[in-house]
Amino acid sequence: MPVETVETHCPYCALQCGMALDSQSQITPLDFPTNRGGLCQKGWTAAELLGSGQRLTTPLVRERRSASFRPVDWDTALEVVSRGMRAAQNDHGPDAVAVFGGGGLTNEKAYQLGKFARTVLRTSSIDYNGRYCMSSAAAAANRAFGIDRGLPFPVIDLAATGAVLLMGGNVAETMPPFMQHLLAVRDRGGALIVADPRRTATVEAATSHLALTPGTDLELALGLLHIAVVDGYVDHRYVADRTAGFDDVWRVATQWWPERVERVTGVPVASQRAAVRALAAGREGRGAVVLTARGAEQHGNGTDTVTGLINLSLALGLPGRPRSGYGCLTGQGNGQGGREHGQKADQLPGYRKIDDPLAREHVAAVWGVHPSALPGPGPSAYELIERIGTGDGPRSLLVHGSNLAVSSPRSGRVVERLGSLDQLVVCDPFMSETAALADVVLPVTQWAEEEGTVTNLEGRVLRRRRAASPPPGVRTDLEVLSGLAARLGHETGFPSDPRAIFDELRRASAGGVADYSGITWERIDTEGGVFWPCRSEHGPGQARLFADGFPTPDGRARFVAVDAGPAAEDVDDEYPVYLTTGRIAQHYQSGTQTRRVPVLAAAASEPRVEMHPDLATSSGVRDGERVRLVSRRGSASGTARVTASIRPDTVFMPFHWGGEQAVNRVTNPALDPTSRMPEFKVCAVRIERESVDVRPHDVRAEFAWEGEMS
Amino acid sequence: MAGHGMAGSRFVQELRARDPEQQLDVTVFGAERDGAYNRVLLSSVLAGSLAPADVEMIPSAWYAAEDVDLRLGVSVESIDRGRQRVWTSQGEYIGYDHLVLATGSQPVVPDIDGILAGDELASGVAVFRTLQDCRDILDCLDGVHRAVVLGGGLLGVEAARGLAGRGVEVEVMHAVDRLMERQLDAEAGQILAGTLRSRHVQVRLDARARSVGEVAGQRVVVLDDGTYVAADLLIIACGVRPDTGLARAAGLDVDRGVVVDDQLTSVTDRRVHAIGECAQYGGETYGLVAPAWEQATVLADVLTGGGASYDGSRLVTRLKAADVDLAAMGETDPEDAVDAPADARQGGGAEVLRFADPARGVYQKIVIRDQRITGAIMLGGAETVGTVTQLFDRAGTVPADRRALIFPGIVDAVSAVDPAELGDTELVCRCNGVSAGDVRHACASGAATVADVAGCTRATTGCGSCRETVAALVATAASEQPDDPGLELVEVPA
Q1: Do A681 and A136 form a contact (C-beta atoms < 8 A)?
Q2: Which of A222, A269, A687 to mutate to test the interface with B (most CBs of B within 10 A)?
Q3: So which domain of life are we looking at (chain B) (predicted)?
C-alpha cells in the first residue's frame, strides 16, 4: 500500500506546529509560520500514541466505585449514561447534570458540547479546564480591548519587533519552536526581558531577567507603569486619542514608585528602569511587545495583573502599532478556539455573552429554540466542582478532554467531590486519573484519527486532518454527543460530522466578536489557515487587530485601574517556602498523553522539585532525594533537584503527574474575583524529607480494571 | 481623622475597604488645601519630571462615592477628650467615637540669624515638605541660578538632585562630616558625595551656617568660619519633628511622638489613635512612608473589628532620585565587627561584607548577625539590592556563599564551556533530549552538517538555540577525521 501523507498540526500546545503525518505514523515538521520547520520532542513523538497499547477500546462501566470496570458495548454504555442523566435531572432539576470540557477539544467539539449542555441538558453547569489556563488574560483583554484574541498579530511579527517583555512564561520548554521568534529579536540587537522567579531556559536566552518574588507580578507591572510616566516614556498623544481612563490608573500607579516595588518584588530599581527604557526604545524603532503567560495569569489577582500589563502597553502606545502590542501566549492546543464557542460557563458561540439578550436571541435562532429556553451563566470550573454533592449541586458529571482530578487546584478535595457524584462519565482515549474515578468511561479518538478545526495562539483557524484509522470500538466525542442527544430525545441537531457542525458554528458565530462566518474548510486549505474575525467568505481574515481602533463602543481602549495586594497565602513559620508550579519540556498538561510516550516518560519519569542549594542545605535535603511538599491543603511527593537557577525562598514543581505526585494536591484554590482563575502560581509550603522510598507512580498498576488493556 | 497626609489618606482608603457598607461616619480634616497627594514624588515634581497635578493619589470623587466628609484647609485645633469632640479651625465642635491623629511632622527650621522674618521664613528661604512648598519653590525658580540646600540628609539630597535636574546650580551644605550620616558610614558618604558632584550637585561638609543675609544685593549664607556662600534660594532640609502639639495639649502621653500600643491606640485614651510620623511605638518614631502605611492598615483593621496588631517596622531608606541609586537599612556601622571566621560563626559580633568601587560610584556593605542581614548600604545600582532588601525585610537566612549578596551570578554562573569539552552525557538540545554524545555518534556515523545531525537526532529542531553548539561539535568531529581518508583505503587494502 502506498504511503499517504497528510498535512496537519501537532496535538499539543497552542503553537499548533505544522507537521506532515504519514500512514506509517512518521512525522515530518513543516515550514509553517509558527514553527518554521521546528518541532519539540513532544511533537516528534506525538504519533507514538496512535498505536499505544494503553488505548481504551471499549466502553467501561461499573455498578459502584469500589467495583472493577467491565467492558460493555456502546449501546449499553450510552443507555447507562443517559439513564443516569435523566435520573439526576428528574430528582434535582436541570443543573443536576454538569459538563466539563477542555481547551484541547476542537472548535466543533467545544461548540457541540456547549449546545448539548444548553439545549439537551438545559443545564447552566458547564465550564472547562481553560478556566485554569486562559481565563485571566481573556477577562483582562475583553475589558481593555473589547476582544480577547491571544496574539493580536501573527507570530511572525514578533521576530521583527525591537523589544519583548515576557511576564511569566518559559516558552523554551513549553513551546520550544516559538523561541525562534524571540531569539530573532535578541539576535537583531533587540531586548528580550523575561520576568520569572526562576532562571529558566527561556531566561538563559534573554537579555535581561527580572527575578521577581512569586505572587508580585502586579506590583511589578504597576511599578513599570510608574516609571514610564515619571521617566517620560508615555505616548501622550496615543493616550489622548485612542484610550480612556488613564488618570484613574495613574493615581494607583503613583503609589507604586520603583523603590517600593523593589522591596516587594525583589527586582532592583535599575532593572525595572532598564526594562521600561528598552520597551520605549523598541517602540521608537521596530516595535515593542508585552507578553503574558501563565506565570503572570494564574493568580488570585491574575486578571488585574494582566490588566496592569495592558495598562503599561497602552501607556507606551503599543497596541495597534506595527509589530507592537500586548499579547497572551495561549497554552492548550485549542485554548483560543476552545474559549470562543460556548463551553465556558458565561458564554455562547462567537464569544458572545450568555447574559446578553441579543446574543441569546441570535444563538437560540440558530439552535431552533426559544431564547428563554437557554439557561443563564453557570458556576466556574472550581466552583462547579465544589458544588458537587451539595444541596443543589451536580449529581452527574460528563467530562470531555480534561483530567480535572490532576489539573484542578487542591486536587485532593476535587477527588473527594468527584467521589460524591451519583454518576461520573469520562470520555478519554486513555485511562486518565479522572477516568479511573468514573462510573462510565467512553473511549474516544485522538487528534489524528478525526477531522476538525482548532484556532492557534494567533487566532488563526487551522485544520486538523485525519491521518490514521482509530482502533475498532473507539468513537469520536461528536459521535458520543450525537448518541447521547438521541437517547435524550434530540434525534436531530447533533450530527457527528465535524464539517456540518463547523458550518453551523459559522452561523452561530456570525456577528459575534469571534466571527467565523467567512471561514470555510476550503479557505483554510488554500490560505494556510484563516484569522478571525472573518465576516465574509470574500474578505480576508483580520490578521492584525487595532490598527484603526478597538472593538469597544467608542473605539477606544480602556485603561482599568487595578491595585495590588498580598497573595492569598504568604509564607510563615509553619509553611516558610513559596511554591510555584509549571511545565517541563517533556510533558503536556496532566500528562495523560505524554506520560504514555516511552521516550518522554523515560526522559522525565517523575516530578523534580527544584530548590536552591541554600534551601536544600537548610532543609537537610540532598540532590536526588525524595521530598514531600506540604501545604495547608495536602502534600505531594517528588525528587529534589538542587539548582541555583531558582530563588532561595522558592521551590518549583511541575504539574504533569497524578496521585501522590500531583502538585495540585498542594496548590491553593483562591480564585480571581473576575476570571475565577485559581492561584496556581504561588502558595506556602514546607519541605519534608521522605524517609520511606515510595514506589514510582505506575498508572497501570493503580488503575487496573477488568478486561485487557489493548 | 486629624490629618490627611500619606498616613491619613491611606488609612481612610483601608478603612472603607473593610467597611463597604459605610457604617462608620468618617470626617477627615486636612490642614493642607491640596487633596491626597503622594509626598514621595515631590522630588520628581521639583525635578520637573512630574507636574504638581500628577501626584494626586485619590480623586475627590472617591470621597463622595465612599461618603467620607473631607475638609481640606481645615485643621483640628484642640481635643476635648472628656466630651469626645474636637474644635476645628472652622470654629465648630465635631464629636467622635474614635479620633485618629495623623498630623505628621513639621520641618525643623534651625536657629540661624536671618532665616526668619518675624514668624515667617525670610524671602528666598523655603522648606521642602508639602506640595505647596514645592509650588512655592518652583514659582521663584525663574530668578534662581544658584541654590543652597541646608541639610545633607535624605530629603536634602533628593531636593538637591531635583533642583539640579532643572539646571540650577546646587550646593548641599551639611553640618557633619558626611552625607546622610544616620544611614551611611564614612566611605559611603564620600562616594555618594562624589556621585552627586558628577551630577552637578556640589557638597560642602562640616559646614555650619551662622547667618543668612545679603551682600551687595546677593543673598548669601555665612558660615561659622566666615565664608560667604551665594544662594539665590535657600532650601531648608534639616529634618522633621513630629507634630504633637494637639496631643500634648490634650494631655495624652507624648514623648517624641504620641505614645501608642500595638493597636496604634494612645496609652492614655482608648478612643484616640495615632499613625504615621506623629506616632511613637516601642520607643520609635518613623519618618518614612512604609511604616505609616503599615500602621494605617493595622489601625483600619483594628477599628473595623479585625485582629491585626502592629509590631514595629523594618526601615529601608531608599533615595528616590533617577540616577543616584542608594538603599540603606538597619545598622550600617557596627562597632563590633569581627574578622575571624570562628567569631562570626559563633555570633560573637557582626560579620561585615564590603565592596567598594569608588570610580564607578559603587559601594556595598552588608552587616550579618547570626545568618541574618541586620544592616546594609547598597550604593550605585547594586544588582543585588532587591535580594538584600528582601532578606533584611523578612529576616531570611543569608546564602552560604556570601558573594551571592554582592556579585549576582558569580556563584551560580555556568561558565561557558567549549563544546569540544562537553561530556558525552551533557544535554545539548534540551527540546529533544539530545546529548553531546548523541551528536558525536551521529557525526561518527556520517553526519557532516548541522542539518545531517538534525536529520538523525532532531537536535536543533526545537527552539533552535543549540544550533551553535551542534555546529561546533560537527566542526570538531570533522577536524578529528583523518586528513585524507582516501589514503587509508589505499594503505589498508581489504
Answers
A1: no
A2: A269
A3: Bacteria
Backbone angles phi, psi at A140, to 5 degrees: -70, -45
Percent of chain A with pLDDT over 90: 94
Burial class (CB in 10 A: 0-12, 13-18, 19+), A214: buried
- B contacts of A257 (beta carbons < 8 Å): 38, 40-41, 320
Between chain A and chain B, how many beta carbons pairs sit less than 8 Å apart? 141
Q: What is the pLDDT of residue B346?
A: 63
Distance from CA of B387 to the nearest CA of A (A): 6
Print the domain residue range for A37.
5-49
CATH superfamily of B325-405: FAD/NAD-linked reductase, C-terminal dimerisation domain (3.30.390.30)
Q: Are residues A184 and A319 in the same domain?
A: yes
Please answer yes or no on whether A257 and B320 come within 8 Å at the CB atom.
yes
| A-chain residues near B58 (CB < 8 A) | 251
Chain B, residues 247-306, CB within 8 A of chain A, namely 289-290
Q: How far apart are CA A215 and CA A571, in angstroms?
A: 11
Q: Say how far apart CA A590 and CA A572 lie, in whole Å.
A: 30
Mean pLDDT value across chain B: 91
HSE at residue B259, side-chain half, CA atoms within 13 A, is: 12
- Chain A residues inside the 8 Å CB shell of B40: 257
Q: Give the closest of B55, B327, B399 to A254, CB-based.
A: B55
The partner residue sitting opposite B390, judged by closest CB among A171, A213, A248, is A213
- Residues lower than pLDDT 70 in chain A: 1, 691-710
Class for the domain spanning B6-105+241-303: alpha beta
pLDDT at B4: 95
Residues from chain A contacting residue B45 (CB–CB below 8 Å)? none
Residue A399 covered by a domain = yes
Residue whose entry in the numeric block shows the C-alpha cell 516595588? A261
Q: What is the CATH number of the domain that holds A30?
A: 2.20.25.90
Choices 1.10.10.1100, 3.50.50.60, 4.10.320.10, 3.40.50.2300: CATH for B419-491: 1.10.10.1100
Determine whether the interchain pair A617/B400 forms a contact, defined as Cβ–Cβ distance below 8 Å: yes
CB-based contacts of A348, cutoff 8 Å, min separation 6: A114, A118, A342, A354, A359, A360, A363, A374, A508
pLDDT tens across A238-275, in order? 999 999 999 999 999 999 999 999 999 999 999 999 99
Q: Does B464 touch chain A (CB under 8 A)?
A: yes
Residue B461 with chain A: CB contacts under 8 Å = 29, 37-39, 44, 177
User: Distance (Å, rounded) from C-alpha A480 to C-alpha A477?
Assistant: 5
* A586, closest residue in chain B (CA to CA): B431
Number of domains in chain A: 4
User: pLDDT below 70 — which residues of chain B?
Assistant: 322, 340-347, 410-417, 481-494
Q: List the CATH number of the domain containing A643.
A: 2.40.40.20
